[in-house]
## 1
Amino acid sequence: MSQLLLDVNGLTMRFGGLVAVNGVDLTVKNRQIVSIIGPNGAGKTTVFNCLSGFYIPSDGSVMFNGKQIAGLKDYQISRQGLVRTFQHVRLFSKMTVIENMLVAQHRHLNTNLISGLFKTPNYRRLEQEAMDRAVHWLKEVDLLEFANREAGNLAYGQQRRLEIARCMVTQPELLLLDEPAAGLNPNETKELDELIIKLRDEHEISVLLIEHDMGLVMGISDHIYVIAQGTPLADGSPDEVKNNPDVIKAYLGEE
Amino acid sequence: MSNSKFYNAIFAAGITLILACLMIGIKLDNEGAQLAVKGATAEQWGWIGLGIAIVFFSQLFSSQIDAMFGKIPKPNLGAMLPEERKMATLKPWLIAAVVVIMLIWPFMVSRGSVDLATLTLIYIMLGLGLNIVVGLAGLLDLGFVAFYAVGAYTYALLSEYFGLSFWACLPISAGMAALFGFILGFPVLRLRGDYLAIVTLGFGEIIRILLNNWSAVTGGPSGISGIAKPTLFGLEFTRRAKEEGNVPFHEFLGIDYSSSYKVIFLYLIAVLLVLFVIYVINRLMRMPIGRAWEALRDDEIACRSLGLNRTAIKLSAFTLGASTAGFAGSFFAARQGFISPESFIFIESAIILAIVVLGGMGSQVGVILAAIVMTILPELAREFSEYRMLLFGLLMVLMMRWRPEGLVPMKRPHLELKQ
């Protein structure tokens, strides 16, 4: 049995009197694609915000690689290897594609001012390594030919892929994707689908996914969690979830 | 034409009438021991009437005038320059030519022009420093003059109390200003936009008031005078050496004394400092930290999710900007020989900010051009005496109307991937 990468217990987020997330448990194993689904406003993105440190959870524990990360700052969490994307594309649109990839590797570079001013050998080497990693990942997502384009000028589907590449270049172990297929056409969704599977199978990382596109979710997930109104409703394999009466009720309503 | 436009025009004309009557129409004059109220002459009333008419009609036909403004073709500076590849080969030569001209030029013109050029160079330095904070990192700083003051007073005090030389104090001043930037930045960089602007504004005033009131050390409002001038490897630029055993510059070379040597020498130091600052900032923009500043300005949330520590990055911009101001400050103190809190009032911050905005935020060439315009223009407009500031304001309004992105909009030095 593979080891637990992410282990969330009783995650709760309260905004004043409003309980947005109530006692959510989640586990992600190594090399697994796990999805969180649920109706709009169910608190899925709030869960992501808690995991990635954008919110500090009111209660519960988040163990990542055996270490408690609840309460850590956002940048500290992403440095541990848990990186996320957003519902809306958040690229640095005025920068070129390759520059986007380098900003993401900020902490892998020599940021010492003096060595940067004099271009010391160490500075050049790290810069070159970062460049190589960037090229590698641009190739993976099929964007290498656009490396010198401004990111804001890419097509929407390409921007989505660039966002994933920008996360991957930070060398994460767990990738949190927040509705990556939103706004994509069926063709692009299929490419995304293949990309996510490739990330798991070839690059051996885990993916935690929020998605409304049921075709995508059911097709690639190893495990699915259903959340409704901030509380866990069901979980299991795609088939189990699909046939769960509670889930059907939450989505379609009662007769 | 809508009714509201007409009322608007009437209202504006009315305001103009009231203001003009109060400011020009009525004058207080001494008549013996008493004050007497005097009306304006018929000619002046004529001008006031004309002014009111202009305001009225320009308000009434504002949309048509705006449309006309839109039709004026915006000069395309990019098209005037040779194409990009040619530029790349031409650029080093162009820069070399500018530097050589800057070095030769002072020997051919009057002392006054060199002095003015030195002042311009100080503002260029300040503009470039603030450009890091406002243009690159996107943090609005309204109290930038505080760091300028810290630099100036650091040199003045060290020189007065400990007799340290200008060259030793230059890095110390930059360091002190950076330290103040760090101390201020640490708590306030959590704030954003307007709030940050207000806090920095307050900080600028605190420093000035502190300097004004801490008379025991800073000399209070009367300032510090007799600050030592820079020396060239120990050679002084005075008629007679101040220190025993020192030889003044002109005696050392065996030439006649001329006071313009000192002015030219100061100018050359300023040129060197500016070149140094330009080089450093140019490198910074291409370094990871420069990229991080811009990334943070564009999208803070994305930066956080990618493991960038935003506080550290903002702090570095703030600190580096401040140290540039400290540099400029210590040079300013050395050039003037006298400083007082009067030199570091809010309007200075505003002027430096105006330089950055007019020049085009983030653009180095733009900031340099704007600094030149902003310091030389008031000198050229001297004959308009009291209407000088009015002219200055008018220019800024027109500028923002005509070219809101600044004189030379920022063009990012794109990093290219060589295939």
## 2
Amino acid sequence: MDLSSINPVLLLASLMVAATPLLFAALGELIVERAGVLNLGVEGMMITGAVSGFIIAVESGSPALGFICAAIAGALLSLLFALLTQVFLANQVASGLALTLFGLGLSALLGQGYVGIKPPSTPKLDLGMLADIPFIGRVLFTHDLMVYLALALAIAIWFFLHRTRAGLILRGVGENHDAAHALGYKVVMIRFAAIAFGGACAGVGGAYLSLVRVPQWTEGMTAGIGWIALALVVFASWKPGRVILGAYLFGGVNVLQLNLQAAGAAIPVEYLAMSPYLVTILVLVIMSAERSRAPASLGRPFHASH
Amino acid sequence: MKLIKHLATATLALGVATGAMAAGHGEKTKVGFVYVGPVGDGGWTYEHNQGRLAVEEHFGDQVETVFVESVPEGPDSERVMTQMALEGADLIFTTSFGYMDPTINVASKFPDVKFEHATGYKTADNVSVYSARFYEGRAVQGLIAGSMTKSNIIGYIGSYPIPEVIRGINSAYIQAKKVNPDVEFKIVWAYTWFDPAKEADAAKVLIEQGADVILQHTDSTAPQAAAQEAGNVYTFGQASDMIEYAPMPRVSSIIDNWSPYYIARTQAVIDGTWETANTWDGIGAGMVGIGEITDAVPADVKEAALALKDAIASGDVHPFTGPLNKQDGSAWLAEGETADDGTLAGLNFYVEGITGEIPQ
């Protein structure tokens, strides 16, 4: 075993990149579920974001515009889900699954002319002096804007949920929609907004995949990240801080296990390959040993007739 | 309980009836394809789909084709195959190693439907297996890779530790070692055939650890994109030409050409001459193609690579020719001896010089 060939600086730096798409998608879904809606269409919204962000970035030459359009595309697709489940009271699980299938098909169609094209590169943020700090500078301050935006978003969501009135209302809707309705809050409108926000986040996460992490467009390129994001929200007990921890753990252990393999570590590869899933679940389960539970109205349909 | 039983019988009878109807129809032959990835993966599944399109073009109205993409290996694939057989497919191509047991299971339930399983080794009265000698192409890649590397570290992204992949690693290593005795292989198992993000991560990790040539045995073009971003890294197209990444990083490729085989087998079903077969063709028969070697490769290396390709095609050179030892140092092939197909089909060890263990 030659562990000296693993560069810890590069390892930690790539960890942050590997975790970002997952973090975006999971944070979006966290808001959706906190509002009491279970949207299983994360994968579909991600891949739609991935393809639309890619197309716009290639056509306009601007990755920033690509990310914005990915957010819009993800939100638009999620509104379809919102319409089905909030207005027509369709089953949320079935609608979410349908959204994933629809997103995968739609993205394959849209992306047909864009296979094998290189997207414009997303510029790294120039943080000047900070990047020159030994070790920490290279690990923390040499990324593109989106990596920091994901972290900022997590903090903003925590602040929103626990320190603002609007956040309190959103949580109220998720815990007991009948009570929220009786208090005069527009449950359906609030849920529409939460679903659209979740869609936008998933779209951005997908675009990060196609514009930065891979970077290319390939059909079906999310390959299950949306499902991992869904699981992560549950294991993180619907708390933004734990979502960050989970996403970074998952991304980190994944990159670490590939590094260990390449360095020829004497650990059986099977264990290494399953380690990202195992470690993430274990840590989050142990952390959530104290009392924590799902939003009480999660997945239940709301009809304002009574 | 009784109702369920009745229902099951009815469904079964219906299935048999539709199956019989399709077989008795005799007008259109229906050919099904089960794919492990999306048809737009730019690699493995893309080439199988090109084969399907070639069948459609060749037979026109005589044949109808159906396909299901991104079918997970395992029980799910059994459901897809059963569905295809129930819908009247006469011939079904299952195009991934992990479909081996499901194919055998479903085939035993539909004796009148012909099955063709790619890269496996289990046959039955109505199940043939076919594969290409990708390792012949890997030998050519190994020669180029060994000549091109400056760091003497070649990264290899494996999918699953199955004989097909292990043959490729060995074959590439043997040739790379011949032209560059200092060469070292770093092997990473991705445990997936298709996951662009993971494949890109694997490529980046290998590049970070000093590899300046990346060989991949996964299906997407993600490692090519990662290498392009890193610059000064060479890659090879896998399964498909991946010419979009030429001349750098992609300097050559292995191209799977399934069309002639698919057309021949479909013809056999139409003629009623289909028989269980075990086909394993290489460069010589045209099942394995070597994509254009770009100008990023020096002329003398290109010449040597093409010479090796021709020698393999004509049968003068076998990529596994002794003297070769196994990884543990024990003797495998004596001077001038070549590996037989049986050993190659079940190859489960590295040759001497490769470090690391094969996951069991």
